[in-house]
Amino acid sequence: MDGIKMAESLKKLRDVNKIKDVEPLSNALFPGYHCPLMGAMLTIKEIEDAVMMVLGPDECAYYTKMATARMRGMSMTGAGGITGGLLGNVVSVVLDSHDVTFGCKEKLEEAFEELVEEYKPKTVFLVTTCVVEIIGDDIESLADLFKEKYGFPVEVVHAENFKTDDHLPGIQDTMTVCANLMKEQECNGSVNILGQRLGDFTKSELYNILQESGVYKGLQLPGHCNLEQIVKAPSAKVNIVVHPIGIPLAKKMKKKFGVPYMIFERESKPENILSSYEELYKLLEKPLPEKVKILYNNVKEKEKKIKSKIEKLKYFSGNTAFSTYELHSYLIELGLEPILIQTSDIPSSDDRDLKLILKKSDPFVTRAANIGPLKYLYDVLKPDLNIGAGNPMEMRKKNIVSIVFANAYNILGFEVTETVLDAVDNACSDFKKIKGGSANEFMSKLSHSIK
Amino acid sequence: MKEMRKIAIYGKGGIGKSTTTSNLSAALAVMGKKVMQVGCDPKADSTKNLMKGKRIPTVLEMIKEKGEDLELEDIVFEGFGGVLCVESGGPTPGVGCAGRGIISAFEKLEELDAFEKYKPDIVIYDVLGDVVCGGFAMPIRGGYAREVYIISSGEMMSLYAANNIAMAIRGFGNRGYAKLKGLILNSKNIENEVAIVEEALKEIGTEIVQIIPRSSEIQKAESIGGTVFEAFEESEMQRVYNQLAEFILAQEN
To answer: ipTM of this model?
Structure first.
C-alpha cells in the first residue's frame, strides 16, 4: 500500500457532511464491525429467563452458537458467571430452500412446539436474519400468534446485516423491543442505565455518586438482568442514557410510561460533565451533591496545571470509549492538534463540538478505525501521538507515542477528565523523552562535566 | 377527525389496475377528497395519467441517489386534482428482488412520516397482483391498507389471479390483515362476462362492486396523458368512476 496515494485520497473534516462522503483507508477492515445478529446475541444472552431463537440459514445459526459458546458465562462487562436463559445457549431454526420459497411459518410453528415442550421458556426473542428479511416473511404476525397460543412474550428483533455494517443496531433494537415487555409501575426513585455495553458501571464515579445520594440502579440494558427487572423498569425516576444506542428505548419509555431521560455520555470536558450532573439531579428532584462541585473544582485545577505544560502535539485518533467529537474538541482546547480522525459518523453541521473543532483545526477523516493500513500514513502525516488502537511496534519504530485509555468503559463523570488529562500529560512527557528533549540525571551530569 | 382510509387495489398485470386506480383517484379528488396514490409496481407507471403522462422519480431510485438526504418532496408529487403521487419503483426485469424493493419503499415512506405530513383522506395502493410474495403483500399487512379490491375481467387468467390474491388475504385474515371488500369488473366484452365472474366469485368469496365497461374514452384520455376527468368536460366514464368512488366512500372503514 502506498501511504502517499492513501493520504492524497483523504478528505478534510470541513469538506464532508455525512459518513457516506468519507472513504475508509481500505475496503477490508480490521477488526471490522460484525453483524447486528452479534449485537442481538450479546444483549439477549445476559437476560435471565430469555431464550434467543435465531431464524435463518445454517451459517447464521452456527455463527451465533459459536459466539455464545466462546462467551459462555461471560458478561459484556467482563464479569463472570453471567448467563441468560438455557444457560446462555441459543436455539436456532435453520431455513432451507423450501422455507425460503414458501415462507417459514410451518417450520417456525414446529420449532415453537418443540421449544415449549422441551424448555418451557418464559420469554423468547425471535431474531431474524438477512434471508428472512429479504423474502419479507411477516415474522411479527407469527410472533403475535405464538404469544397468543403459548401465553408468553415473543419479541422479534430484525437483525439483517444488509441494512447496516455494524453490530450496534442489533444491541439497540433488542433493547428497544424490551419496552414491549414493560408494564406501568409506581415510581420508586431509581434510575435505569441504558447503553452501557462494555465495562462495569458499578465501578464508575456516576454510580457511586448516585448511591451516595440514595438513588439506586434499576435496570441496566444491555447488561445482566432478568425479565422481572425489565417489566418493572418504568418504576425508574429517570432513564440515564450513557450511549446513543439507548436513545430509542428511552424515547419509547417516555412516550409509553412518561419516564424522562437524559443523556450522560462519556464526555471529557468538565463543564459538559457538570452540566450533565445538573440536568440529572434536576430530573431526580434532588439537590446537586456537594461532591460533584468538589470533583469539578479538582479537575479544573488539574486541567490548569496540565494545560500549562502541554505542547502542540499532533495526533491520529481511532475508536475510544469516549464521546468522539467532544473528546477532540477538548484535546484541541488542551493544546493538541488532530491530523487524522478515524470515525464511524459525522455529526450535523450545527453540532456544538464539530463547530469547536473546525474553529481551530481541520483534520483528515477516514471511515472506520482500521489499524491495518493506518501504519502507511505514519511516515506521510507524521503524528506525534496515536490515540486509540494502533500498531504498537510500528508506532515505536516511528517514535509515535501511544495513548490508550485503559479501563475507559468503567469510568463515567469527572474521572473521564482525569483519565484524559493524565494520559495526555504522560504522553507529552514520553514524547519529550523520545525526542531527547527532557533533562535527565545523566544528561545533567554530562553537561556539568563538559563545562 | 375522520380516520384515513387505506385501500389496496390488486389485479393481474395488464388488467387495468393503474387506469382504474388513477381514474378513481381523480374522481375522489374532484369530489373534494385529498388522495394519495402509491404505485407498487416496478414498472412505476401507476400515476402517469395523473402527471400528464410523465413518469415521476421512484422511491427506490431516490433512495439510491440521495440516501439519508432523501426528503418527501423528492418522492411525493402533486398531480391532477391535487392527487399526491408516489411510485415505489423496483429493479428492471431479471435482476434483484422487486418484492424486497416494495418493503424498502414502504419503510422509507414510514420513516419520513409521509402520512403524518400530508394527512390524506384516502391512500390508494396500486399493487401488482401476479406475484404476491412477502414484499408484494406489504400493502395488505402491517396496518398499511385495511381494504382490498381486486380488479379482474371475465378472462380465466385474471380470475385465477384474483383467486390467488384472495387466498393470500384469507391466509393472513387471522393476523389482522386487510379485508377483501369486493371485485371491480373491468369488462373485456366477453360473452356472458358478468355471469362467468359471478360464478368464480362464489369460490373467491366476494362480490362485484362495480362494472367498468369498455370505452374508447379511456384510451383517448390516456393518449393525452390524463384520466377521463382531465380529458373531458363530461363523460359516461366519469359517471362510472364516480359511482365506484361513491361506493368506496360509503363503506365503513
So the answer is: 0.72
